[in-house]
Specification:
The chain is α/β, with parallel strands linked by helices. The protein has 15 helices and 15 strands. α9 crosses α10. The longest helix is centred in the middle third of the chain and has 26 residues. The chain is globular and about 60 Å long.
């Protein structure tokens, strides 16, 4: 009797084991049935890397981004490849340097164009000149185009320089890009954040109604000028700021943070937080002048860290371990490859970034690069101002000999000298030579 009982138990165990063991096809079936994460890119506009609570600013309050930083994988030493919005945004969505996507500046100027006209009248010649730029851009892969393979719905809100949102592969968007109706860098899309979040909420609702994963491009015109914050925020910062101009800018930073909180709260209300990947970056930096509404020359459009450096954050609750990385250098070019690898998708040949979750690739990275062109550009060679190489711990700024003949080579120890005050180029010529060679080799590749 005892032998029979043991034999039955063994038989039952074997039957259960065989029933639970999956064939390779069954494993793949289970994998493909897993719910795909929503993906939200949050992009601030004209904000210095120092101007967040979690980055140590003593006055500016950014509680929502502070929370995102604490709950995600946060890189203190992130960079965008160029410090101007149009080329920077194009690099974020494509994962390639400006020299490959050819959106070199905000406006393209051809011989004979009247560059003295006021920006509000540039629509008379900009669309025609930018047409070839958009046609080339449309030959490239973008994240929304790639995500169609997985059934994603993609939504554009905020800044978008490349005409209609469809030029980026988005399914829906706010930017029409019609020059006859003021289309240049976002048009209707620029209302998001500043005039409420309803359109964005409606897009999220649409995706949930269709039971589709979504990709959201949230690139509001914040804290970008004009600095017109709510009065309650302005009054909060006026007593703390050295001038009213600074107070307005600080208030704009908190206003942007508030909209980020509204976006994340809405996703939480919909029960989608655990199934959403949030990625944060700033398109380029900004240092507010004390005595006028413009920016300091060492920030936006410059090759310095106040123009290029930005925190970059990745948060996917339960999937990406929270960690504050203060050492490794990362780039906005890494955002697309990282997303694709998380979705087990192939990374197209020619992309310039890496999967930052691949620790070996991150640790083996020797440098990341940057390039600055004229705001009003023509050809690549005729518009190039600077090339940069960022390493641990040195950064090289290499001016173009033809277009910036009065500029000198600059080398900074960006860990000891984060505000780039001491040029070490003459003291360390061997490092200058090595980083210059790295820049030249990178430009020869692909």
């Amino acid at each position: 009797m005892r032998t029979y009982t043991i034999g039955c138990a063994i038989l039952i165990f074997l039957l259960n084991f065989c029933a639970c063991k999956e064939s390779p096809k069954e494993k793949e079936s289970v994998k493909t049935q897993q719910k795909l994460p929503n993906i939200v890119f949050i992009l601030s506009d004209d904000q210095a890397w120092t101007d967040y609570g979690f980055m140590g600013h003593e006055v500016i309050k950014t509680p929502n981004l502070d929370k995102l930083a604490s709950e995600g994988l946060t890189f203190d030493r992130g960079y965008v490849p160029t410090s101007l919005c149009s080329p920077s945004l194009a690099s974020i969505i494509t994962g390639v340097y400006p020299r490959r996507h050819m959106v070199l500046g905000n406006d393209r100027v051809l011989p004979g164009d009247d560059k003295s006209v006021k920006p509000s009248w540039r629509s008379s010649w900009r669309p025609k000149n930018y047409d070839t730029v958009i046609k080339h851009f449309n030959t490239l892969q973008t994240l929304p185009k790639l995500l169609k393979e997985k059934g994603y719905l993609s939504f554009q809100t905020g800044k978008w320089w490349l005409g209609n949102y469809k030029n980026g592969g988005f399914d829906y968007g706010m930017t029409h890009g019609d020059p006859e109706r003021g289309g240049r860098h976002g048009d209707y899309g620029l209302e998001i954040g500043r005039q409420g979040m309803d359109t964005l909420y409606n897009y999220i609702d649409l995706a949930l109604e269709k039971k589709k994963p979504f990709f959201m491009w949230y690139a509001p015109f914040l804290p970008h000028s004009p600095h017109t914050p709510p009065d309650s925020l302005l009054q909060k910062y006026l007593p703390k700021a050295p001038t009213e101009y600074v107070a307005k800018y600080w208030a704009m930073c908190e206003w942007f943070d508030q909209t980020c909180g509204q976006l994340m709260d809405y996703i939480e209300e919909k029960g989608e937080t655990e199934n959403t990947l949030f990625v944060y970056v700033c398109d380029n930096g900004w240092v507010q002048n004390l005595d006028n509404a413009t920016y300091n020359k060492n920030s936006k459009r410059s090759p310095y860290d106040y123009g290029l450096r930005t925190p970059i954050m990745y948060k996917w609750k339960g999937k990406i371990m929270p960690f504050r990385d203060t050492v490794n250098l990362t780039s906005s070019l890494d955002m697309v490859p990282t997303v694709l690898n998380l979705l087990d998708m192939d990374i197209p040949a020619g992309m310039d970034g890496i999967d930052i979750l691949d620790k070996e690739a991150l640790n083996n990275r020797e440098a990341i690069f940057g390039e600055i062109y004229a705001h009003d550009f023509n050809t690549l060679e005729g518009s190039l101002f600077y090339r940069m190489a960022m390493t641990n711990p040195y950064k090289l700024i290499l001016p173009d000999a033809e277009n910036q003949p009065d500029e000198t080579v600059k080398l900074y120890h960006i860990f000891k000298d984060p505000t780039e005050q001491q040029n070490l180029a003459e003291e360390r010529p061997e490092i200058v030579a090595r980083l210059k060679q790295m820049i030249q080799e990178d430009w020869k590749e692909k």
